[in-house]
Write a structure and sequence with these properties.
alpha/beta, Rossmann fold, globular
């Protein structure tokens, strides 16, 4: 067993010993500034990742770094309060650590959330957008680097997003009197924000929004046969769309402002899934 395999097993064994028979149905990854949703979880077990040997530490503001086992609407949840980004200097093996851990706990569905820059002219800061596709402009694929002991013969050759939820967007919109949208997310490596010229190119490629995460998680989840729901909060206009300068603080502020409606939407999605 190499070091990567050992780290996955080391963290899993420790957590499994602590949580016992707790069997989560849904894995939830909370992106920048969205960790406040963790307060909605009826917690049973909380692990500070800074104290978990072998688990990568999140270094980005707005990513607290907790792993939470608990319940929402009687549904058993494994939640990651903060994610691991490639631009933090981690390998793809480490970026997808949460999803691999979720697979080891046999979860059925991944709900991954993020904040992104709006490219589509119909998207504005504060909008909630469900991912119906993505563009991997980095051309990096975590399947190619996962350890041999995790490789399977996957039936999913193309990444898919949970159609059951996408079909329910009009109903969820009506219930909460909010215009929910769907669109294509484009992944860049970061940490630099994109130039106006790049955003124009992305728009021509068909991207509706841009961000620095999520896609590797979606790829590996599909590979393992885990159903995927992707939700993005538009935190700002992408570079060149607006004259305002981009900042991470803006991301956090928009997340804080819209946390209640996003929490309602997430809870509704969870209730629909099971």
């Amino acid at each position: 067993m190499n070091q990567k395999e050992n780290n996955y097993q080391l963290v899993y064994n420790y957590i499994k010993h602590e949580v016992g028979n707790f069997s989560p149905q849904i894995c939830l990854i909370l992106g920048s500034g969205l960790g406040v949703f963790a307060s909605e979880i009826k917690r049973q077990f909380v692990f500070d990742t800074s104290n978990l040997k072998g688990y990568p530490k999140s270094t980005v503001s707005g990513h607290k770094g907790n792993i939470i086992f608990g319940e929402i609407n009687r549904k058993k949840i494994l939640a990651f309060q903060g994610r691991i980004h490639y631009y933090e200097g981690y390998s793809l093996n480490e970026v997808v650590f949460p999803v691999i851990l979720a697979k080891m706990f046999n979860v059925n569905t991944l709900i991954t959330t993020n904040v992104s820059g709006g490219i589509n002219s119909k998207f504005k800061p504060g909008d909630i957008v469900f991912l119906d596709s993505h563009i991997n402009l980095t051309f990096k694929n975590p399947i190619s680097v996962i350890p041999q002991n995790l490789r399977i013969k996957s039936n999913r050759k193309i990444c898919e997003y949970e159609q059951k939820i996408l079909n329910k967007i009009p109903d969820i919109s009506h219930k909460f009197n909010v215009e929910l949208k769907k669109g294509t997310y484009l992944w860049t490596l970061g940490p630099s924000y994109e130039t106006p010229a790049e955003i124009l190119a992305f728009k021509n490629l068909g991207a509706d929004m841009v961000g620095m995460s999520t896609v590797p998680e979606v790829i590996i989840a599909n590979y393992f046969g885990i159903n995927v729901v992707g939700i993005s909060l538009i935190s700002n206009y992408a570079s060149g769309i607006s004259e305002n300068k981009l900042s991470h603080q803006e991301v956090i502020e928009i997340s804080e402002k819209n946390k209640h409606i996003l929490a309602n939407v997430l809870k509704e999605v969870i209730s629909i899934l099971y």
